[in-house]
């Protein structure tokens, strides 16, 4: 497999008024092309920080990390990834189409290419026909799908997602989990996904990275034995419950560092 993201002995320490905060310590991880990797752990364990390091939004203080064989900064300049935040972050004065077009406008795509990509990504996230609507006219789940469409608009190979469904109710979340798996299957993207939910991590991922409380260390990396085709009721199978149990045990083991 082609390794897309590689972290070696990665450290990140924030300097604060109360002294140093060790957010990541000795993190080693390889993410291969086409992987769906979920990061799970308690609040403050460095899940989001690790994602932000990949995206060149935070700078590590030790170790190395490469994205597509280059530094995260070079990968960012090469437009290697789209990033989906916890909140949809759509501009209320722009239509859904206008929000999705924004990165394309910044990157200098011509009007015809913009229109074509907006139409394509709206179809990918099942929002065809909503281009002229404003964010306030859409439900929370639809707004998050529009946010995913914006991250997909320039067709980056890597999609980094920071708890995109955390604020949604369980029924909507289940539906979006199904849609995201479908999207991943159709596009072949490499996805890094932060979550607090064990069922969500197990349902979505080819690889689950379990992290300990601060300083963020990786306590387990679980290769999923589940098939690529995953109806929601797979969550009731012994195989699913076995993986969920291992994630739970990894989280418990991580707390023993305290």
Automatic annotation (TrEMBL):
Name by which UniProt lists this protein: ABC transporter ATP-binding protein
InterPro entries: AAA+_ATPase, ABC_transporter-like_ATP-bd, ABC_transporter-like_CS, ABC_transporter_ATP-bind, P-loop_NTPase
GO molecular function, one term: ATP binding
Protein family (similarity comment): Belongs to the ABC transporter superfamily.
CDD domains referenced in this protein's UniProt entry, alphabetically: ABC_NrtD_SsuB_transporters
Keywords for the protein's UniProt record, in alphabetical order: ATP-binding, Nucleotide-binding, Transport
Record bears the keyword Glycoprotein: no
Pfam family, one: ABC_tran
SMART domains, A to Z: AAA
UniProt xrefs under Gene3D superfamilies: P-loop containing nucleotide triphosphate hydrolases (3.40.50.300)
Domain of life according to the entry: Bacteria
ABC transporter domain: residues covered: 7-234
């Amino acid at each position: 497999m082609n390794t897309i993201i590689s972290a070696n002995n990665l450290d990140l320490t924030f300097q604060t008024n109360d002294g140093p905060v060790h957010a990541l310590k000795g993190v080693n991880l390889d993410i291969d092309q086409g992987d769906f990797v979920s990061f799970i752990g308690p609040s403050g364990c460095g899940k989001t920080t690790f994602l932000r390091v990949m995206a060149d939004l935070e700078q590590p203080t030790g170790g190395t990390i490469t994205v597509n064989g280059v530094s995260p900064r070079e990968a960012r300049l090469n437009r290697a990834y789209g990033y989906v935040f916890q909140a949809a972050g759509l501009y209320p004065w722009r239509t859904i189409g206008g929000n999705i077009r924004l990165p394309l406008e910044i990157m200098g795509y011509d009007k015809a290419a913009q229109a074509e990509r907006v139409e394509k990504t709206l179809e990918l996230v099942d929002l065809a026909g909503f281009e002229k609507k404003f964010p306030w006219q859409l439900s929370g789940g639809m707004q998050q799908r529009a946010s995913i469409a914006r991250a997909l608009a320039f067709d980056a190979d890597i999609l980094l997602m920071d708890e995109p469904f955390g604020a949604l109710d369980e029924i909507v979340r289940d539906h979006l989990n199904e849609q995201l798996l479908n999207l991943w299957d159709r596009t072949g993207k490499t996805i890094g996904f932060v979550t607090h939910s064990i069922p969500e991590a197990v349902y979505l991922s080819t690889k689950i990275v379990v992290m300990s409380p601060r300083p963020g260390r990786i306590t387990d990396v679980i290769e999923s034995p589940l098939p690529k085709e995953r109806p929601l009721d797979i969550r009731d199978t012994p195989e699913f419950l076995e993986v969920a149990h291992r994630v739970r045990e990894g989280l418990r083991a991580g707390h023993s560092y305290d």
